[in-house]
Amino acid sequence: MAARNHRTWQTFALTSLLLLLGRSAFAQDATASKIDTGDTAWMLTSSALVLFMTPGLALFYGGMVRGRNILNMLMKSFIAISVVTVLWILIGYSLAFAPGNAFIGGFGWLGLKDVGLGVNADYSATFPHQVHMIYQLMFAIITPALISGAVAERMKFSTYVVFIALWSLLVYAPLAHMVWGLAGTKGFLGDKGSLDFAGGTVVHISSGMSALVMAVLLGKRRHTGDARPHNLPMTLIGTGILWFGWFGFNAGSAGASGSLAASAFVVTHIAAATAGLSWVLVEWIAYKKPTALGFASGAVAGLVAITPASGFVGPIAALIIGAVVSPICFTAIKMKSKLGYDDTLDVFGVHGVGGTLGALLTGVFCSKLINPLGADASMDQLGKQALGVGVAIVYSIVVTFILGSILKATMGLRVSEEDEIVGLDLSEHGESGYAEPASGANTLEPEGFGH
Fold first, then answer.
1. CB 352, CB 205: distance < 8 Å
2. What is the Cα–Cα distance from 345 to 201, expressed in whole angstroms?
3. What's the CA gap between 63 and 59, in Å, rounded?
4. Residue 201: its pLDDT value, please?
């Protein structure tokens, strides 16, 4: 009797286990049935493209500094990949996208808790939630790295590392939530109807305005010798990589491999090409000769300006945006010497000004024919765009000034005069990028990055 009862319990336990496994498998199949492999493949590819932009930025910036600072400039981009990744996993993604209030996410997704391989109704309806997380991480990485161009050749590396870590949590994450937050309470700017498809306010205005603040707090470089870009071919290679990766930046923001991604891809290229040509024409008029640095500056300015608009405008609008952004950014950079601040590689002049222009022109050219979830151009929409621009500018400036001032009083912001003269490669890293110092390459003085 005891043996028979024992076998009965074994049978019951085995049957229950099989039923549980069956339910689990069914649940997994149900989740898997919602995942579109095409969308998943496109979002993973876009994530890789956006990550590639940060090494591209390293080359882009690296070619514009003096040879004795090349490694330091490259490291400022590469270290951002590691620092921001660790913080994003632990807390950053939760602050940016988890359910919270209108201004910042909560702590529900700390350490990627509940961020799994299933879909998420708010952010990833056709691909795994972790894919959304990793895609957004790539944006979070490059944004503080952009600021490195304004502090080049004089900021302490240790302070820079602490700065980008805190900045990514205190500036980037809240702005990302305000614009793109959907879980729980919708983000403040998104709820107000301010459109930002791929990061005009979140990425470019925030980094550009913060770059201006840090340039002012640091003060001017101590110019010793030739301060021109030491390797413009490197800068052009970086421009090409940025251009290539930007297709993932903008077209990937469609969140699917459909017609909206195709539209964003097309207008991104049109704006970049037009802006590069526009900048060259401006230089031809001003200096009688077009420059490689000018073309690079223009192409990036076009990419910046089309970013917030890329999912809401058509080809002709992209052509106009690319044509007008270059002369405006050119003029903004030209004012730098008159205003007396030293934004080394013109982050404010291109990203701050270009991002602001692009965000505002989104309200001028947006159409529901391109994106039914967007809006049609109107004065009302232009006002909503102005609200987004204003919040991004004020928030970025105030928080960056407080953060920069605290670091200046505690860790110190800049290297010593002797270290700056020697170069940050040797003084900060104990190594040199070249066997012999590289000299400046161009002999013109165009209004572009690094002038």
1. yes
2. 20
3. 6
4. 97
In this prediction, the residues of the chain whose per-residue pLDDT falls under 70 are: 1-33, 224, 436-451
The gap between the terminal CA atoms of the chain, to the nearest Å, is: 94
pLDDT, position 223: 76
At residue 189, the 3 state secondary structure works out as helix
Write the DSSP symbol of residue 184.
B
Among candidate residues 92, 53, 42, 50, the one with its CA nearest the CA of residue 254: 42
Residues found in the chain:
451
Stated pTM of the model? 0.90
CB contact burial 36-74 (16+ within 10 A = b; e otherwise): beebbebbbebbebbbbbbbbbbbbbbbbbbbbbbbbbb
Distance of alpha carbon 306 from alpha carbon 204, whole angstroms:
11
Q: How far is CA 1 from CA 10, 12, 15, 40, in A?
A: 14, 17, 21, 57
Are 211 and 342 in contact by the 8 Å Cβ rule? The answer is no
Structural domains of the chain in order of their starting residue, each with its CATH number: 36-429 (1.10.3430.10)
Residue whose C-alpha is closest to residue 298's, from 327, 334, 268: 327
